[in-house]
Amino acid sequence: MNTSSQSHPRLSIIIRSKNSAETLAEVLKALAAQTVQDFELIVADSGSQDQTLEWLAAYPHQLLKIQAQDYFPGKVLNQAASMARGEILVFLNSDVVMLDQDTLAELLAPFANPEVKASFARQVARPEADAWVRRDYLKAFPSQGSAPDWMRYSLPLAAMRRSAWVHMPFYTWAWGSEDTEWGQGAQAKGWQVVYTPQARVMHSHNYTLRQLAGRRFIEGEADAWMQQAAYPLYKLPLRILADGLRDLNAAFKTGSLTELALALPRRAVFHWAHLQGWKHGWQRLKAGSQESSKGQQFVLERHPAVLR
Is the per-residue pLDDT at 100 higher than 90? Predict the structure, then answer.
């Protein structure tokens, strides 16, 4: 990895980490193999106690140290972006592996058009991903064409012009979905945000039901902010049934007893936790509350790995 020694590198790559040693070596190896090497590396670490910082020591980087209890995605991303000197910001999660040597080049290709403000990569589920995770990823990140309308932006690997971030930093009202909220804001401004399916990365999580509940709660809270409306309760059973039947159908085809047993409970948790988060967010909105710690506590109690 030959990070730029220029005073103004073209790219600033931002990685968030906490106890990421299990995946970070592979992530950094793939980054070092990219055809694009004119970048500076900025790492925001939230109190790693494993070998994360040792792995990073081999690569020139700027380190932003965050106390674990102070980790708040939008806030940390804004802090790291404020340190950046590159004209383009690239966001790379510490468990996201670039699959090709030109992944970064493909992600950056749309910026040849000065009207393009941001881009995001295609995420491919890990080989050990659960079947339902693989199906959801294929739906969200198609191998060609455009991403679905609801997939506006996704930060595991994404880029944006620094000038766009200066004009519209990440929001800090809620703990999660900072990328989705930024994408919605970009869409409202008429900005071009490009999905780049040729830029492939490996990334996915096999959530337990408890972890899934934590993740979906903060997504629901964020959705209340983005929709500025109460949750449409009449859609809840329809969503559980539609997703559950899809998972059941897939489980019957594969003969997986585990998938058969979990299909409906998993989708019930998936949508019920989202509803609870939305209700909490809607209550905050009506009260004009800036207190965001409940969502943070809810997800970290169930899924501390989201710190990375």
Answer: yes
